[in-house]
Specification:
The protein has 277 residues and is of the alpha/beta class. The chain contains 12 helices and 8 strands. The protein has a single domain, classed as Vaccinia Virus protein VP39 (Rossmann fold, 3-Layer(aba) Sandwich). Helix 8 crosses helix 10 and helix 9 packs across helix 12. Its EC number is 2.1.1.197. Keywords: Biotin biosynthesis, Methyltransferase, S-adenosyl-L-methionine, Transferase. It catalyses: malonyl-[ACP] + S-adenosyl-L-methionine = malonyl-[ACP] methyl ester + S-adenosyl-L-homocysteine.
């Protein structure tokens, strides 16, 4: 791992590679706030495994969930040993849902790149499937490290390139517009973490695949969790009925154990545990 980090120059992670409208991201997650928990199966598996890793590492003191969404992790962090819990999200709709699920938690609406918190004020940060939305991971991780106490834990799960490859490959047969969000390579994330004063303790990776009965179900599923395309240059909307028919024809289908045709959508999930220097 150290050799991998040394091979990357600091300049490789200093310039943002993505262009996204943060407020659009916030709006799309607000729209998905009431459907998120029932639709987010991959997100649930990812979150539960990250919680398991946190329990193994130990949880106490004040923990902050960044990108908390509808607060699915806050009670679990408290039950695992956190004496104080806070949730932060840029989406007003998600925080409204969070208040319904976890009314006793401290909830903060803020940009993850600009935390309205004092230096070294939390013992741990939990963040599941939020970092991939960062425009500038180095800035984001430096800000998270700022609020962590020395010796504190950053537990995060994120998505890597190759996520939604089936959808990306199918769209590429139709047009050259970006239809799938871009993801930061692991090497760049690790370098950004090292430059932020974070020391890697554990890394695990897995591919999780959702199966859908139709292309329409797949696209509705993405909309229900707020994970729609926000890249610059995207086509507004999906392109109409003909585009959807073309997408269904180009999509790599599989057959499940019952013999039914399925539309798979895979996620390259990376779990990382860091310690603050």
């Amino acid at each position: 791992m150290n050799a991998q980090l040394q091979a990357i120059g600091a300049s490789d992670v200093l310039t943002p590679a993505l262009t996204r409208d943060k407020q659009q991201v916030a709006r799309q997650f607000s729209r998905a706030a009431q459907t998120y928990l029932s639709a987010a199966t991959v997100q649930q598996q990812t979150r539960e495994h990250l919680l398991q890793l946190c329990r193994q590492d130990g949880i106490d003191g004040h923990w902050l969930d960044i990108g908390c969404g509808p607060a699915a992790s806050l009670k679990a962090l408290q039950e695992a040993g956190a004496q104080q819990i806070s949730g932060l999200d840029i989406s007003a709709g998600m925080l409204h849902a969070a208040r319904q699920h976890c009314p006793d938690a401290r909830l903060i609406q803020a940009d993850a790149d600009h935390l309205p918190l004092a230096d070294h004020c939390v013992h741990g940060i939990f963040s599941s499937l939020m970092l991939q939305w960062s425009e500038y991971p180095l800035q984001t991780l430096r800000e998270w490290a700022r609020v962590l106490r020395p010796g504190g834990t950053l537990a995060l799960a994120t998505l890597l390139p190759g996520t939604q490859r089936e959808l990306q490959q199918a769209w590429q047969r139709i047009d050259q517009r970006p239809h799938v969000n871009r993801f930061t390579p692991l090497a760049d994330l690790l370098k950004s973490a090292s430059l932020s004063g974070l020391q890697l303790q554990l890394a695990e990776r897995d591919r999780i695949t959702d199966q859908y009965a139709s292309i329409n179900d797949l696209l509705r599923g993405l909309k229900a969790i707020g994970a729609t395309n926000v890249n610059a240059g995207r086509h507004p909307g999906l392109g109409g009925r003909q585009a959807l028919q073309n997408l269904a024809s180009a999509y790599p289908v599989t057959v499940n154990e019952q013999g039914a045709t399925c539309y798979p959508l895979s996620y390259e999930v990376q779990w990382l545990i860091f310690r603050r220097y």
